[in-house]
Structure formats: structure tokens, C-alpha cells
Amino acid sequence: HLALDRPPQFSGIDAAGHKGRLVIAPSPDHVERAFNPSKYGAFSPEPVMEITLPSLVDPSLAPSSACVLSAVVQYAPYVLKEGWTAGKPQFLKAVMGQLETYAPGIGATVRHAELLTPADIEARYRMPGGHWHHGELQADQMLMSRPVSGWSSYDTPLEGLFLAGAGSHPGGGISGAPGLNAARRIIAMRA
Fold first, then answer.
1. CA 20 to 30 Å from 64, out of 4, 36, 95, 148?
2. Plot region of 113 (φ>0 → left; ψ -120 to 50 → alpha; else → beta)
3. Where are the alpha helices (DSSP H) in the chain?
4. pTM of the prediction?
């Protein structure tokens, strides 16, 4: 998360585009190169990011003319080889370098930065592994196996307990789809 003294200007994006979701993933090859270091306990020097500027949509989130930037930086390993205490400043530097490539001058506008590692996210939000989708989005945890095999229909072995969050099919984000699907399941079961 970044507190900026003014909204950034991402190259090639008009004002309306800054109010949506911005993704830094220039090519499939780039995504693969960004993922590879995580397999070895390292982070990418050019990370893939999903960025929002929520204060452009809701001005109450930042002082007048200032801006809040929130980024989900993909493929950060849960366990960093040199440890997150030592690695956090270097990771923030990599994130800022990547942002600077696409929003020149952004570094000079930063008033405060908060970097949450996967372990920070796990501790603060009770998300195992720091996964913002409440679990890995990988082949063995998708479709009929999300969140786990046998629980993909939103109901659980506990009567009246339904799963409707990011850990349910089709996963996290802001789609509302898991909640809608769970509601449909409840209605179907009661019909």
C-alpha cells in the first residue's frame, strides 16, 4: 500500500482507466519469469502486480489531491531465502522499480509505504499462507475441489454452515460470485 501526495500517471492509461484495475504483466513470458524465483525462495526483480487506486473512486480515502495505491504483488514466496526481515526493503525496492517503469515519477510522490509479506497477511487476516484467495489457486484446489474435495457445493458437513468467501469456487477477487453461488445453493436446498 502506498500513500501518495498525488495520483500517479501510468503510461498509456487515460484518467478513466486509472479508476479501474491495472495489471502489470506485459507478456506470458514475463509472468513466467516473475514466477520462477518464488520456487527458490526469492522474489522477482520485476514482479507482476494488480493495482488499484481506490481513492480515485472514493475521495474520502485520501486527503484532497492525494492518492492511495494498493497493489497485490504476485508470486512472493512465503519463506524468503534470506528471511523477510532482511528481504523486505529489497522487495519494496523491486516493487517501486517496477511501478516507476510504468508510472514514471511515482517514487517522488510516496509519503508512506506499507509492504505486507505472505506471513504478515497470514497473521493479520488469518489467511493461510498469505493467499488472498484463502488458498492456492492451482489445479488441485479449483472447480470441484475448491476449497477441498467434497466441499465444492458451498455446504459443509455442519448443518446450516455454508462457505461463501474467497476460498470457495471460483475464488477471490471482488466478483461476489462465491456468495451468489452459495445463496443459490441454499435456495435450491430449501426448495
1. 95
2. beta
3. 28-35, 54-57, 84-102, 118-125, 177-190
4. 0.81
Q: Please give the grid coordinates belonging to residue 97.
A: 522499480
Q: How many helices (H) and strands (E) does the chain have?
A: 5, 5
pLDDT tens digit at each of 191 positions of the chain: 999 999 999 999 998 999 999 999 999 999 999 999 999 999 999 999 999 999 999 999 999 999 999 999 999 999 999 999 999 999 999 999 999 999 999 999 999 999 999 999 999 988 888 877 777 767 677 777 777 777 778 888 888 898 888 778 777 666 688 889 889 999 999 88
**Residue 124 and residue 116 in contact, taking contact as beta carbons nearer than 8 Å:** yes
Rounded CA-CA distance 41/121 in Å is: 17
31/46 Cα distance (integer angstroms):
9
Cα-based distances in Å from 177 to 20, 130, 160, 171, 174: 19, 21, 20, 8, 8
